[in-house]
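Researcher: Here's my situation. A collaborator sent me these components and asked whether they could plausibly form a single complex. I don't have experimental data yet, so a predicted model of the whole assembly would be a useful starting point for our discussion.
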Amino acid sequence: QSALTQPASVSGSPGQSITISCTGTSSDVGGYNYVSWYQQHPGKAPKLMIYEVSNRPSGVSNRFSGSKSGNTASLTISGLQAEDEADYYCSSYTSSAWVFGGGTKLTVL
Amino acid sequence: QVQLQESGPGLVKPSQTLSLTCTVSGGSISSGGYYWSWIRQHPGKGLEWIGYIYYSGSTYYNPSLKSRVTISVDTSKNQFSLKLSSVTAADTAVYYCARVGSGYYFSLNYFDYWGQGTLVTVSS
């Protein structure tokens, strides 16, 4: 399985919205609603932000939302805040295995 | 609140076997309903799924690592473990243990709880 494709970096100013894309194939992202997103601050473990394409775990801000169209999933963060600056990874589950994206570094200007 | 904690040597010699243990608290592995997984992150790089185990002992491994990986479970200690044989410098990474949960689709498919991670360096 090949890694999912994410942009290396995105940036935005406080209060703005940004979207991070995650492109796979019809065998992973496009074939199942099993896309999840993780936030990772430097030196910390990843944290689940979105599961099954668009669902937020309890405690995750509603500024985070997820969607999918075809083979591309997206994570949108609205009302950017300084603490959102982190690395973000998408993941897709398929056939008893997981594949991750290469990660996107979000910079809040 | 489920918590996971990795433990094991931080330095392993090339060609030897890397061994890590994940201790779970706040929940019982033997109650079922979840997979228990290992994931690693090479320095400055992305995440790589290694494999998972169910409380019954059934496992599934990343095909790229399958020949060198063994994951086992000790329900009496509420722990699961990773062994990676014949390590090289390319296996230097932060190793995370994580729980795999399910949502609306009743399929275990995302990592909802993670350990803090442990850095394993392969060097002579």
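Model: Some features of this prediction you could bring to your collaborator: The interface with chain B takes residues 1, 3, 32-34, 36, 38, 44-48, 51-52, 55, 57, 89, 91, 93, 96-103 of chain A (CB under 8 Å). The radius of gyration of chain A is 13 Å.
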